[in-house]
Amino acid sequence: MQALQARSSLQIRRQADRQPHWQPKVWRPSGKREEEIIELCECMIDVTAALFSVSSKDMRKTGRTPFEVSRVRQIAMYVTHVVLGLSMNEVGRGFQRERTTVLHACHLIEDMRDDRDFDRIIAMTERVAAAAFRNHEAA
Q1: Do the domain assignments include residue 139?
Q2: How far does Cα 12 stand from its chain's mean position?
């Protein structure tokens, strides 16, 4: 029981350390219409593909993809969920993946953030996403 409480408090402290000191005003779909969600995810795919020099066409493929492509897709799904505030179901629909795939990606990326260098990469990706969608208005 104590180990569980210690782990929970450690996770809370880690999350608090990762919270930006500013909360950007980020575009969120009005009414979370399906087309807006898909458009948002498509834009996030393009942004992360450009950041990591991966083909956005490869990121959109269904089925198995090379490790580099799937890792960038996992990062994109994580950032879409965490920064842009879409639910895992919505991210799954936007990325044409199952909700459990998004859940796995979010857990994996969160665990990998224990590595300081990887955490910097994810933090940079979060800042780029927040800046890219800060002033975007819903159609």
Answers
A1: no
A2: 19
Number of domains in the chain: 1
User: What's the CATH number where 114 sits?
Assistant: 1.10.1750.10
Q: Which residue has the higher pLDDT, 4 or 55?
A: 55
pLDDT tens for residues 64-122?
899 999 999 999 999 999 999 999 999 999 999 999 999 999 999 999 999 999 999 99
